[in-house]
Design brief:
By secondary structure, this protein is α+β, with helices and mostly antiparallel strands. The protein has seven helices and eight strands.
Length: 189
């Protein structure tokens, strides 16, 4: 829980009672590699913080091909799509790429935190803005660059991930085939 509290405190101050209240609501959850945290079409009933591990957001094309469109590494909040007033049905899957340790909150407890801590909405808005800005920065270069430049950019933006996730996921994220990625990697040596 300390990691989550430290993350939140980057965005605003909380007093000891508020920290204790939040800490009492969260629980540690383990998700094994390849398991899903969220599945398209199934109600999402929790918010989580990635304490350890990597997850990926993916969807399936009509032809069954899976497309990875984002990675969530340590110190990321899995909740951008959560509307506290209604149950969310995600359109994508969130799958553990590695074994993951999460700090999870039920939607009921998350709502209670939001209703109890006056500055919570302000903190969450700051987190959402930061996450969206990072997501746009990571994804925008994928549209305008060739495959080699996209891979180089991936290495710069995700330096700690490249050796922790399968090449097939990286290739999917970059919008290229795995054989093309292998050629690019070989030419960079």
């Amino acid at each position: 829980m300390d990691e989550f509290i430290a993350y939140v405190l980057q965005f605003d101050n909380l007093n000891a009672r508020q920290i204790e209240f939040i800490s009492a609501k969260g629980r540690e959850v383990t998700i094994a590699k390849d398991q899903f945290f969220a599945e398209a079409g199934k109600a999402l009933r929790q918010v989580a913080f990635v304490k350890e591990g990597i997850l990926r957001a993916l969807y399936f094309k009509n032809n069954g091909e899976e497309v990875t469109n984002y990675f969530f590494e340590e110190n990321r909040l899995l909740w951008n799509w959560i509307d506290l007033e209604e149950e969310i049905i995600p359109t994508q899957y969130l799958q553990a790429v590695t074994d993951c340790q999460l700090i999870a909150f039920s939607l009921k407890d998350w709502r209670e935190i939001s209703n109890t801590i006056i500055s919570w909405e302000k903190i969450m808005q700051k987190i959402i803005l930061k996450n969206h800005a990072e997501k746009l920065a990571r994804r925008s270069s994928l549209v305008s660059q060739d495959a080699t430049a996209r891979y180089k950019d991936f290495l710069e933006k995700y330096p700690l991930l490249v050796n922790r996730i399968p090449l097939s996921y990286i290739a999917s994220y970059l919008g290229i085939t795995q054989s093309s990625l292998s050629r690019i990697r070989k030419n960079r040596r």
